Amino acid sequence: MKTLHPVAGALALATTLLFWLSTVSSELFGGPEAIRFVKLAIPWGLLLLVPALAFTGFSGSRLGGRWKHPVVTAKRRRMPVIALNGLLVLVPCAFVLRHLAIYGALGTTFYAVQALELCAGALNISLIGLNFRDGLRLRRKGRAAETLTPEGCGLHRDQRSSQRLRRP
User: Fold this and answer.
1) pTM of the prediction?
2) Most buried pick, 8, 42, 59, 73, via CB within 10 A?
3) Quick check: 148 and 155 in contact, CB under 8 A?
4) Are 13 and 135 in contact (CB under 8 A)?
5) How far apart are CA 1 and CA 3, in angstroms?
6) What is the C-alpha separation between 75 and 70, in angstroms, rounded?
């Protein structure tokens, strides 16, 4: 699970970022057909994104366990926001935009929903990115704690073990 968690998190971040950048690119550099293509493709991409996010949340809660470390606590607080934002805002927006794109209704409603989707997507990208960064920090701190030696840090073995990141 230690290996799959960061892979699933990276996949979720990359997929969300791809959706966001594709939307912005099609609006800035493409025409109605490019916009339509992107809006029809995104719901299919949800088949990859939703399981990746679900596994990331599940594996993160298992790996974090009962840790009280502030970084783990911050990651734990962000996950419900990411999940609710995705399920209550981004997924419905994706399907509404798909529906509007199918019928060529690229008017005011389309752009209002798309503005909401872009804001919510940017929020999720930021929060997932922060969780990814914090996960890397935890991993580095864990490795550094494992490599400490009594000669290198001037601590007795019992003092070293109390400074490691570990579950209570």
Assistant:
1) 0.80
2) 42
3) yes
4) no
5) 5
6) 9
